[in-house]
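Reopening this one. Same input as before:
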Amino acid sequence: MATQLDMSQQMLLKQLARKQSQFNLLERYYDGDAPLPEGAEGQSRSYRRFQRKARLNLAQLSVAAVRERMVIGGFRTGADDDDNGDREARRLWKANHLDYLSADLHSTFLRFGTAYALVGYPDESEYPVVTVEDPRQMLARTSPTDPHKILEAVKVFSEYGLHYAYFYYADRIEVFVKDNKTNIYDVDDWQLRDDMSATNPLGECPIVKFTNADEKGEYEPYIDIIDRINHMILQRLVIATTQAFRQRVLKGDFPTHDADGNEVDYNGIFESSAGSLWMIPEGADVTELGQADINGILQAVRADIQDFAAVTRTPMHYLTPEGANGSAEGAALAREGLVFKTEDRIARATPGWSKVMSLMFKWMGDEERASLLDLEPLWKPAERYSLAERADANSKFQDVPFRQRMALIGQFSPAEIEEMESERRGEQILADALGGLAGGRA
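Same output, byte for byte:
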């Protein structure tokens, strides 16, 4: 059956198919299911299970270190651009549960180097709905002159025995289906579903693309270091396991066959285990071998982890508990590198979140708030101070206006600052009232 996809749609689907192997490999490292250290092919299942114990999941930690510091506290818009942010934008943000779904998008964006958000307005919802999209299921083509402008996009998924392909354009959304027994990335056999397709009233593609530096995951350039660490951990496990019992060498005149003429199986006789009892001929010489020193391997693994921490700018205390025992100056320098990297990732994600909020307001017909030139996410600081540091700085900067002091030093969100101001006004009114009563009695 001839394909119903045009050439542009076929190209999108083929490009998405080519990215699957790269994304799936990155996902394996992130999930702690990195390729086994060398020697897995042709080995027994028990040995492969043994090899799995040698994998250390550093990839997830390198992503978490950045993601935990990427938090949006609100938005400024053309209708309300004060330091506390726009209340209507905050309502839309909470309505879509983006307090935690934004963390999921950041995790995807940092893991794969790319992530997408889809902004729609289903009939049953009062608000536009934002979904976080996996780059293994979605691909967008951007304008060559404006990398933030999406010209067309495709999303594929399987459900109820069918493959679905949604193609998004500025003026329409086309839906294709085919049987799920075929390859979802194959361009053949797709059929247009007119009953599911629709016009797009926005006038622009409702897809937003988030792109990391060089469109690479945080740990993607350093996979070889992770492999090296896993390899050395495997060597340590092999040595520790094979030397769980002292290795012994037996010398002597041992018969090859028993009295009945059967060949003697010395592997079964001289088994190394806690309950083994060996009976050896008189005059046999037993020599016990020393155990190999694994301290060198342990130090090598620590050195490789330090290399990984350096190239990913991840503080050592994220990767190993020993990292918390370093000098205060060293910890500050490591944290500084992480802060700079996080600020870079925040800058890269800012246009995406501004566009998401703009599309939501555009769905609602609020053109004033939808203006991209006036939209700005209010990020919480990438540098997090301790409670003692915040209290000390607050006491020293009393001349700074309250809002600025609470935002820059206290590191409170716009919503928290607004609530504090409301409570301060209430306390002031109560204090004035009590003062008036006291004056009247006098």
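So the earlier flakiness isn't reproducible anymore. For the record, The chain has three domains: 1-242+293-384, 244-290, 386-442.
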